[in-house]
Amino acid sequence: MVYFEEVRRHIRIDAAHVYGGLLATLTALYEYHQIPYEGIPVGTIKKKMTGKGNASKEEIIKVVCAKGHASCDDNEADALATLHVMKGKEIRHVN
């Protein structure tokens, strides 16, 4: 099973195009190889980790480090936060 951050809104048009292309490529790859996958909304990850759906990158890093990880940057912290959220499996997506 592959889990990834599902970004529902990009402020910058270029970022939206890049994310759309990445999502299309990953979806095609997973479907072709019959790999199960699920996008988890960023707000859901933030809410489950910090109690706030609009938590800052620094807040996510702090919570991930408190769980025993020496997170190097916000990207690694985001990946570890997604892992922690999905280990619980009982999530409800936040809009």
UniProtKB/TrEMBL annotation:
GO terms for molecular function: nucleic acid binding. SUPFAM superfamilies: Ribonuclease H-like. This is Phage related protein. It comes from Bartonella henselae (strain ATCC 49882 / DSM 28221 / CCUG 30454 / Houston 1) (Rochalimaea henselae).
